[in-house]
Design brief:
The complex is a heterodimer of chains A (414) and B (109).
Chain A: H1 6-13, E1 32-38, H2 42-55, E2 60-63, E3 79-80, H3 87-101, H4 103-107, E4 118-122, H5 125-141, E5 146-148, H6 150-156, E6 171-175, E7 179-180, H7 183-196, E8 200-202, E9 207-213, E10 216-222, E11 225-234, H8 240-247, E12 253-265, E13 273-276, E14 281-285, E15 290-301, H9 309-322, E16 331-342, E17 348-351, E18 357-361, H10 371-384, H11 397-400, H12 407-410
Parallel strand pairs in A: 1-2, 1-11, 2-8, 4-13, 11-18
Antiparallel strand pairs in A: 3-7, 4-6, 5-6, 9-10, 10-11, 12-15, 12-16, 13-14, 14-15, 17-18
Chain B: E1 3-5, E2 12-14, E3 19-23, H1 35-42, E4 51-57, E5 65-71, E6 77-82, H2 90-99
Antiparallel strand pairs in B: 1-2, 3-4, 4-5, 5-6
The chains are: A alpha/beta (414), B alpha+beta (109).
Chain lengths: 414, 109
């Protein structure tokens, strides 16, 4: 792989950009791999990357039924934060956030990580107490957050109306080290690094069945023929239930549509990420100038990847009170992704009843921020059989009643 | 957008008039049941890609609960039926079989 650098740009400029090579190969599948990962989204690619980088396992195929990063990795609002309430969540999300800081250097690919700060508004007394509690918990967990007053909110984000009639801003949970990154670049950067290590990223290759001998996995059948493997990682977000069904076990997961939208591009007006969980909306401004807006999920199981009109209205209506200046903005695009939601709103990174099959799912509405940490932990789990970061996120926690309850800490917005 | 017809009052409305109540026909387990049964009832879900049976409430209408059969891939509604039953009616299952041959959902097909 030729490295990207300022020198490379100068070199290619001098020869009409004729020397850029493909970022990743497009191979046909081999008949056998040590590890197969189903799903070439951020989490799947990060898992493969860390299997190679941390454990030297490079005989790996990453199978993707559509195109690379075309699922939720390309459909989120790119927010990165780690201000969770429970210790196991804080550990894995903070690991993830810290890996984002050096990701561009690690991958030699500019993922445009922008630690611009994430602000979660407290607009009811209940939220004030909740976020103060989270700030204290974060202090104990070693995650840098603080609870700030309305005056500081106004300083950090002048376009907020803190005296809104229905939901005045009473304060906010502020994580200065949170921010955003370019979501497609995360998938592309990982794919390039995986391909460089000799892994096969195979697009348009749908898994149609999972083959077992007794309780052990031996391979998968795909639209490009059968492929054998010793270990199988299922990292398919909204379609986890469907793929788990092929392997022969059930999941405590429901798939729903979550949608987002962007406005027409405008001049820079906010340089932080703001989340308003009481009114179900969150907003940041992209480098192109579009206001990126996310809302709530549809209230029923759904695989349509589009979402409902009334949710757009609900989200925008709610945000207009807090951000009066967006009331005249035209909305440019809207899209939906299928998110996999668990009972306690925390992910599942776990062994499964089938030997050799591992699952990484249940990130629900908040997967993007977790990509590198999830990959790091999942790779350790698959290589060594356990990982301190994934111990609490096992599939049997629902039976044992050991929930990691983040539905209060995180609300709907992620 | 989902369009549902309430089998209790007969009104047809779009989804914001209704409230989704999750998977239908769950077998309930309480105190004294095994951990596996309780886990199955509380957390494990069919979550199908395709034919699905759900509970809905006509929240901004007559307020009654009812059942709906729906496709999660296309949002096509196959039909709605009253809440006072533990399985989808035969004629609805036959209608689904015509549109989605070979469908199965939990114990039903």
């Amino acid at each position: 792989m030729k490295r990207y650098s300022a020198f490379a740009i100068a070199r290619e400029a001098a020869r009409y950009h004729s020397g850029w090579e493909r970022a990743w190969r497009a191979p046909e599948p081999k008949s056998k791999y040590d590890v197969i990962i189903i799903g070439a989204g951020g989490h799947g690619l990060a898992t493969a990357y860390h299997l190679g980088k941390n454990f030297g396992i490079t005989n790996v195929a990453i199978l993707e039924k559509g195109w690379l990063g075309g699922g939720n990795t390309g459909r989120n609002t790119t927010i990165i934060r780690s201000n969770y309430l429970q210790d196991p969540s804080a550990a894995i999300y903070e690991k993830s956030r810290s890996l984002y800081e050096t990701m561009s250097q690690d991958l030699n690919y500019n993922v445009m990580f922008s630690p611009r700060g994430v602000m979660m508004l407290a607009q009811t007394q209940h939220e004030v107490r909740g976020y103060q509690r989270t700030a204290h918990a974060n202090a104990l967990q070693g995650v840098t957050t603080e609870f700030i007053g309305p005056k500081r909110v106004k300083e950090l984000c002048p376009i907020i109306d803190i005296d809104g009639p229905r939901y005045p801003v009473l304060g906010a949970l502020w994580q200065a080290r949170g921010g955003t990154a370019r979501h497609d670049a995360v998938a592309w950067g990982y794919a390039r690094a995986c391909s460089d290590m000799g892994m096969d990223v195979i697009q348009k290759c749908e898994v149609t069945a999972i083959r077992r001998e007794g309780d052990k996995v031996v391979g998968v059948d795909t639209s490009k023929g059968p492929i054998d493997c010793a270990k199988l990682g299922i990292v398919v977000a909204g379609h986890s239930g469907d793929v788990a069904n092929m392997a022969g076990f059930r999941l405590p997961i429901e798939s729903v549509a979550l949608q987002a939208l962007v406005s027409e591009p405008i001049k820079p007006c906010m340089d932080v990420v703001v989340m308003a969980n009481t009114v179900h909306g969150y907003m940041s401004q992209s480098d192109k100038g579009e206001m990126v807006i996310g809302g709530g999920t549809d209230g029923y199981n759904n695989y349509t990847q589009r979402g409902s009109f009334h949710h757009i209205e609900e989200t925008v209506r709610a945000l207009i009170e807090t951000f009066p200046m967006i009331s005249r903005l035209k909305m440019l695009r809207q899209w939906g992704g299928i998110v996999d939601v668990t009972g306690d709103r925390s992910p599942i990174l776990s062994k499964t009843p089938v030997e050799g099959v591992f699952i990484n799912c249940g990130w629900g509405t908040g997967g993007f921020k977790a990509i590198p940490g999830s990959g790091w932990a999942m790779a350790e789990l698959m290589a060594k059989g356990r990982s301190p970061l994934t111990d609490e996120f096992s599939l049997d926690r629902f039976r044992a009643g050991k929930f990691i309850d983040e539905s209060v800490a995180a609300g709907v917005a992620h | 957008m989902l369009i549902l017809t309430c089998p209790c009052c007969g009104q047809t409305g779009e989804e914001s008039e209704f409230h989704g109540g999750g998977e239908a026909h769950l077998k309930r387990f309480g105190p004294g049941s095994s951990d596996a049964d309780f886990e199955g009832y509380m957390f494990m879900r069919e979550n199908p890609k395709g034919v699905h049976f759900e509970r809905w409430r006509h929240a901004y209408g007559c307020g009654k609960w009812f059942h709906a059969a729906r496709c999660t891939m296309t949002l096509e509604v196959f039909g709605t039926y009253p809440a006072q039953t533990t399985e989808p009616p035969k004629e609805l299952r036959d209608k689904i079989s015509k549109k989605r041959p070979g469908w199965s959902w939990g114990a039903f097909s």
